[in-house]
Amino acid sequence: MSAPKVVVVGAGPAGIRAAERLAAAGLRPTVIDEAPRAGGQIYRRPPEEHARDHRALYGFDAGRAEALHASFAALSGRIDHRPETLAWNLRDKVLHVARDGLSEALPFDALVLATGATDRLLPVAGWTKPGCYTLGGAQIALKAQGCAIGTRTVFLGTGPLLYLVAFQYAAAGAGVAAVLDTAPFAGQIRALPKLAIRPEFLARGLYFRAALAAKGIPVAHGVTPLAIEGAEGVERLRWRDKAGRERVTEADAVGLGFHLRSETQLADLAGCPFTFDAATRSWRPEVDEDGRSPREGVYLAGDGIRILGADAAETAGRLAALALLADLGRAPPEAEVRAARRVMRKMARFRDGLAEAFPWPAHLARGIADDTLLCRCEAITAGELREAARAKGAPELNRAKALSRVGMGRCQGRFCGQAAAEILAEATGGALDAAGRLRGQAPVKPLSIATVAGDAP
């Protein structure tokens, strides 16, 4: 009997630990990763010719990053690792991947999707100017390329990543003009009992804030962004403080991010059902506590399901692999499964604290001015979406997409989709979950025409 064909998509914390556990059970999974080197976004590594010390790259997470990288290196010869490879379609238990202009179809018996997360964005007037980056993009520039996005950067948004990236820039000697958090400070105080479930994480966040204060970097809470301004690029950011006073911060770059959103397009193409998460005002794939989806042979792990952080993703990756092995008739020790479940339940309680401390600013999304560019790919304004909703009868997001082209571009709504849903719900007077979500489409990320034309399947 031939060995089952198992594919893991993603070589971040969840994907690495899933592959490691599967290999330990005697399987040889194929690991697909878009990056040239394993580690994911949080433990992203620079090119080998620009290698730097782990401590300099990852700070408090240096030990965990080094251990994860070493674990993946130890898998050499026991897995089929395919770096710089895009998983772009999924249908009928076949994953389509592309690398160097060549596409290949990979049939599988079981699939682990460890696709991670990207920045959750709120359109701000002027956010398409040169010098505007996501927080993740700013972090990639620093980690992988050893450079800053500007000499005087404003970091705007909310969530733990806001403070982490600002701290990393300040620690690297880059100029940080201000850290502007849309979440009110009172909410963060109220969430402390839930966040204290993971005291080391809470302590780290407090340290980042203290370090920023020690460097004289202004930090403001409860802000309202008004506009990013400049003639040819970023020159300043206008914003309103919690007291309603208008402020101006001079800057030559802006890092934007309002916590994170799960990458769910492949789960969508796999046919996984989705459920609305009221706490985060977003949709997520349905899974059981071990990571099984209702689709036979499809498992999900890490931030691609819900945002819990890198250490939780490692546990989730192992747990999904254990579920996969059990379903293949290779039941792992029950004690191992129970221990992983306990960790994940603790992480879930911490996530509730994050949602309370750093809420998605729905009121700001709903109040985006009509002339603000909402969909950057298709150059659609917020006003054009409202017109589609009110004048053209589009109460649901995919209908609005057909009538206005919002979310129809290269990013497939990764940047604009969640703000678009808020605007649509406000314009129609309906609930946010009634507005729906943009459905995933293949290719999930852009492919060249030559690659598609050369696709043998």
What report would you give on this structure?
This protein is an alpha/beta fold. It has 16 helices and 22 strands. It has helices spanning 13-24, 54-58, 62-73, 135-145, 160-171, 185-190, 192-195, 199-214, 265-269, 310-327, 334-357, 362-366, 382-390, 397-404, 417-428, 449-453, and strands spanning 6-9, 30-32, 80-82, 86-91, 94-99, 102-107, 110-113, 117-119, 132-134, 153-158, 176-181, 219-221, 224-229, 236-240, 246-250, 253-258, 260-262, 274-277, 282-285, 298-300, 373-375, 380-381. The strands form seven sheets. It has a five-stranded parallel beta sheet with strand order 3-2-1-7-20, with helices on one face. The protein has a five-stranded parallel beta sheet with strand order 9-16-10-11-12. A three-stranded antiparallel beta sheet has the order 4-5-6, with no helix packed on it. Helix 4 runs parallel beside helix 5 (160-171). The longest helix is centred in the last third of the chain and has 24 residues, at 334-357. The two termini are 26 Å apart. The mean pLDDT is 94.
In short:
This protein has 16 helices and 22 strands. With 457 residues, the chain is α/β, with parallel strands linked by helices.
Quote the distance from N terminus to C terminus. Answer: 26 Å
% residues in beta strands: 15-25%
Mean pLDDT over the full residue set = 94
Q: Can you count the helices?
A: 16
Count of extended strands: 22
* Strand arrangement, major sheet: 3-2-1-7-20
- Rg estimate, integer Å: 22 Å
The low-pLDDT segments are none
Secondary structure: helix percent: 25-40%
Based on Cα principal axes, name the global outline: globular
